[in-house]
Fold this sequence. Notes:
Blueprint: E1 9-15, H1 23-33, E2 38-44, H2 50-59, E3 64-67, E4 81-82, H3 84-89, E5 94-98, E6 101-105, H4 108-113, E7 122-126, H5 130-141, E8 145-149, E9 165-168, E10 185-188, H6 199-207, E11 211-213, H7 215-231, H8 237-247
Helix pairs in contact: 1-7, 1-8, 7-8
GO molecular function, one term: shikimate 3-dehydrogenase (NADP+) activity
Protein name: Shikimate dehydrogenase (NADP(+))
Keywords: Amino-acid biosynthesis, Aromatic amino acid biosynthesis, NADP, Oxidoreductase
Amino acid sequence: MIEIRGTTTLVGLLGWPTSHSLSPPMHNAGFAALGLDWAYVPLPVPPDRLADAVRGVAAAGFAGANVTIPHKQAVITLCDELDEVARRAGSVNTLVFDGGRVLGSSTDGDAVVSRIEAGGRRALVLGAGGAALAVAEALERAGAAVTVASRRDSGWPPSAGGFDILVNATPLKEELVVAPHARLQVVDLAYLQDGRDTALVAAARAAGCEAVVDGLDVLLAQGAASFARWTGRAAPTAAMRAALRAARP
């Protein structure tokens, strides 16, 4: 049980909805492992109240926040400053509140790139939201040739033929949109709370793909980077990983 006192430093998750997220138990386990009087709380915010919410948590003394669907692009206009990665990606998933200023950054893309070999590869990114933009930017920065496909495109669904990397940055979890082949490195940003593999991860494992990275791997990597931005401390990833496992039925 997390105890929140008058001395507790708060961070939160701005999204709509937030009930699906395993970020709260992951980050709270990290704070506990380092003996920090910090707490991470879900903050469900409908799109039309995002500006009020960002101003409110900053005014209330929060140290920062994560930003998730559907706010990663909309929150940009509410930031006083963007780091270079967020500016290039056009997406923000991490806020730091510093002296009344809202600082925006993105850890999504680098979390993906840290788990695969991207240089000189051809990558297909599925999605049109903030996470897809961040992943595409990071892959390009790492030397990959990137194609982004979304349901708004006339050629949907695309084929994985001719690609070396496949990244699902859509919310689709139980629908296999693109069939993987064995030569692919596959990354799925989505995850199922009940512990089952998503349809893409299951198909990638069955196909014997070169690498398979599931949504919890990505969540841990991006969360560890956010944790360090807020606290100035290296994230205790072993404790955070254990909390992710324990949080699933």
